[in-house]
Amino acid sequence: MARHKVVHDERLEAEVIAGCKELVRDFGGYLELVGQRKAKGSGSTVGFPDAVLYRKGHAYFIEFKRPHGGVLSRDQELAIECRAAEGVPTYVVSNEQEFADLMGGRLKPA
């Protein structure tokens, strides 16, 4: 029986974001990255998403995670739950395909 090697995508979150920015450039929309990224302890709002995608009259809150091993913090999970309780979804994106699915209306919120 042949063995299949499992290949993990070891890219960083920033590399995924760069790829998603290219998709926005190619297919339209505006991706606004939140300035608080990596600003722990700076007084920024804990749990606010990494970015907001504006596309075709809609705004999408996005939490980016690296493809392999990226996990939501407890603060992020709580913020996602609070937004969801108010009917505002948050999308967790860990690769460009998921982002393309979001742009095409196929990605389900967290």
Question: What can you see in these coordinates?
Answer:
There is one protein chain. With 110 residues, the protein is α+β, with helices and mostly antiparallel strands. It has a single domain, classed as Trna Endonuclease, Chain: A, domain 1, CATH 3.40.1350.10. It is built from three helices and four strands, in the order H-E-E-E-H-E-H. It has helices at 13-27, 74-85, 96-103, and strands at 30-33, 51-55, 58-64, 90-93. The radius of gyration is 15 Å and the shape is globular. The model has no long low-confidence stretch (mean pLDDT 87).
- In the CATH hierarchy, what is the architecture at level 2? 3-Layer(aba) Sandwich
Overall mean pLDDT stands at 87
Spans of at least 5 consecutive residues with low confidence? none
Structural class: alpha+beta
Share of β-strand residues: 15-25%
Anisotropy-based shape: globular
- Radius of gyration, in Å, reads 15 Å
Secondary structure: elements and pairs:
Elements: H1 13-27, E1 30-33, E2 51-55, E3 58-64, H2 74-85, E4 90-93, H3 96-103
Parallel strand pairs: 3-4
Antiparallel strand pairs: 1-2, 2-3
